[in-house]
Amino acid sequence: MIIVGIETSTRLGSAALVSENEIVAEYIINTKSHSEQVLREIDQILLSAGKSLEECEAVAVSIGPGSFTGLRIGVSTAKALAFAMNRPILGISTLEALAWNLPFPCGLVCPMIDARKSEVYTALYQWSKGKLRVLIPEMAVSPETMIHRLDRSCKTIFVGNGSHLYEEMIRAEFGEKAEFSPWHHNFPRASVVAGLGLHRLALHQVDRIETLVPTYLRPSDAEVNWAKKP
Fold it and tell me: In what order do the strands lie in the sheet with 56-64?
């Protein structure tokens, strides 16, 4: 069984083909415009692996939180592919996929993605018996707000570009209880998205193409400006 994964929630976009036991192919690129790259990425991994879309059993896509534009591009592309192939679609949390970059660590895992406007997209997870438990659900908040919600007596591993952006602040509060992931784990990957999709597919936990939408966590600038109009 092979599944295609799409990740466009940050500037480092990717596409991947994953089977039950391995990454068949993965393409990663730092880009300003996912609209110009995502289909090329998919074409590249199919070409490199010698596979066709018809051989893929499902499409998994990160649904956020993250870049509003990037998420719209990724989700719309995944929905179009799933509809055209008549295959299941699986929406995967970007923060969960980011936490899965650090499987089975000792302590808590706090992914942080830079949300701009002095905020981060964040949550808190804990590994327990091979499963990732949600301790604090996803939210868009200031890093100070999230830090004050965390237990400073517990070892916490911070991952994501947001955690490194505010590393000095975090270290000032947590001291030696804070650990930071290496830079190459600080972005969500399509291969992890696809792997999580495979797990959900095995449990028959698929989404509906008609109702799957990105998770933004906060209104867009356009919505905020519209609400301010008299």
Answer: 23-30, 12-19, 2-7, 56-64, 89-93
DSSP assignment, residue 150?
S
Concatenated DSSP letters of 42-58: HHHHHHHHT--GGGEEE
Q: How far is the C-alpha of 156 from the C-alpha of 135, rounded, in Å?
A: 12
- How far apart are alpha carbons 156 and 105 in whole angstroms? 10
pTM over 0.90: yes
Helix (H, G, I), strand (E, B) or coil at 164: helix
Beta strands at 119-128 and 56-64: parallel, antiparallel or unpaired? unpaired
Q: What is the pLDDT of residues 165-212, one digit of tens each?
A: 999 999 999 999 999 999 999 999 999 999 999 999 999 999 999 999
